[in-house]
From TrEMBL, chain A:
The lineage of its organism: Bacteria, Bacillati, Actinomycetota, Actinomycetes, Propionibacteriales. It is found in: Cell membrane. One of its GO terms (biological process) is transmembrane transport. SUPFAM superfamilies: MetI-like (SSF161098). CDD domains: TM_PBP2. Pfam families: BPD_transp_1. The keyword Transmembrane applies. InterPro entries: Bact_Polyamine_Transport, MetI-like, MetI-like_sf. The chain crosses the membrane at residues 12-38, 76-98, 110-131, 137-161, 190-211, 244-267. It comes from Nocardioides euryhalodurans. Residues 72-263 form the ABC transmembrane type-1 domain. The keyword Transmembrane helix applies. This is ABC transporter permease.
Automatic annotation (TrEMBL), chain B:
It comes from Nocardioides euryhalodurans. The chain crosses the membrane at residues 19-43, 87-106, 118-139, 168-190, 211-233, 270-291. SUPFAM superfamilies: MetI-like. It comes from the Bacteria. One of its GO terms (cellular component) is plasma membrane. This is ABC transporter permease.
Amino acid sequence: MTPPWRNPWRKPYLLATFTWLYILWSLVPVLIAVQFSFNDGRSRSTWQGFSTQWYCCAEGSVGEDPSLLLALQNSLVLGGATVLVATPLGVMLALGLTRWRSRTSKVANGIALVPLVTPELVVGSALYLVMVNLYQFVPLGLPAMLLGHVTFSVSYVLVVVRARLLAIGGDYEAAAQDLGASPLQAIRTILVPLLMPSIFASAMLVFATSLDDFVVSQFLFGDAANVTVPIKLYNAVRSAPTPALNALATLLLVASFLALLLAYVGLRARRRGERSALEDLADYG
Amino acid sequence: MAEPPHDHRRTTRRLWPALALPGTIWLVALFLVPVYAVMAVAFSGDINLFGEPIPAWSPWDWQFATFGQVLSDSISGPYQAVWLRTASYTGIALLICVVVGYPVAYYTARLAGKRRGLVLALILAPWWINYITRMLAWVNLLQDDGYVNKALGIFSIEPVSWLGGNPLTVVIALAYGYLPFFILPLFASLDRIDQRLLEASRDLGVGTVRTFLHVTLPLSKLGLITALVITALPMAGDYYTNTIVSSSPRTTMIGNQIELFLLQGPSKNFGAALVLLLSLVLLFFMTYYLILTQRASRNAR
């Protein structure tokens, strides 16, 4: 059994208390916001009893307000579409850049990682200016948002899949090719199945990241028909707040946690006792 | 008869670049070109009928009047206060991140066993809760009749107007928002510190404080700087936190100014010039950081 504390001194009660207080501080406000989504009244600061009316079917609830439903639908559609485009693109990029060793691939690799450290404000405004001034054939709205979300997601997929690719090494493909498989066959029958858990996990991470995104969406959404949940929350939080807003936020929370849970299960499937999948997620974050 | 195992190296040589091509084209078209578009708009010299800048796509057409004006307005003009505010809010919020985040990251990194997974999961949780939702949660609590003022009332402290352009709220909201992003890289670096080094320190009779100052802190220095850089970059460009918890001109940060120019007015060239200026400032810190990490990895060898 591992000792619960890896520090040679006595148990640090002060540090432990501090850490737990931090955790409370970071999570309790969100839990209270979730609680108020079940409030039996219009207030978001006074508890008036339990009710699910803000999910359905009171006036202005998520189920009854078309604008809230639309935001939820837009978020889910955008997230799904981003996964469908960004995952294959990122996996191909990871395969290509990892196995193809040349100066060009180094440059391409560098370009692919820059979006990860560029502030969202810069990415968002740059995409907005290019869509308005150069790519006018892409209308602002879901198409432009999709292009934007894929752009920052490709780098995520690249990082996750490449880590696994480097861990696998080149021996399996070499063996397959020695036995007569063509390079494409080796990729399809050997590499892709080996990579499947990380491909799946990166797809789920992309979905959660897309649901979460606010800045890029806000620069590219165009008009009210394409509002996503974060934009809706942002616009409504200071103007017309009812607990329906909290209900909408709670639904978004549930969706991203489901995606994350699946990613966790996917990563766990391939590890057995090596490192915890959680620490893997920590590395990707 | 099976074919003899012939050499696939030729096809492979073309296969890998072909696989990398679509993604590379995508990133060039939707990352590099957009960044160039910011320059084309910032250095534009003409406006169209609607008063909007016409991008100068060729560097030969670049005009630096707008950029020069934004630069001088930033050094001593209307934007000076906005830049100073951005720097001080970011600085104080980062300080809070260090004071709160370091102990938390250290404790989590030194934990082992079942408890470690639980604490790590709880610390990572906010990472995956939508940022706007986390801010929305605070707006609920900070209402004039919200839980925070009710709690203050117990100690008979007058209710505070938290959401009416209070700089303190903005700074705390920034720290709250970015702390998870700060803790994670720091945790990763503290986690790599060899347990035996701490034991050796203890066996040599060194106390906790001196071990921290002479062993833990130097070993986590690079992790600390990474955490600071990773947090500072988005924080300096943040505008939504400010809008949600304050939306008062008294707390405007540079991100708010940029959003205002780009999305709510025709002066897109001013917005683009400010984006460029902000990027240059951040690039300066980023370069410093890269030099630091390179020096550190050279020393390690």
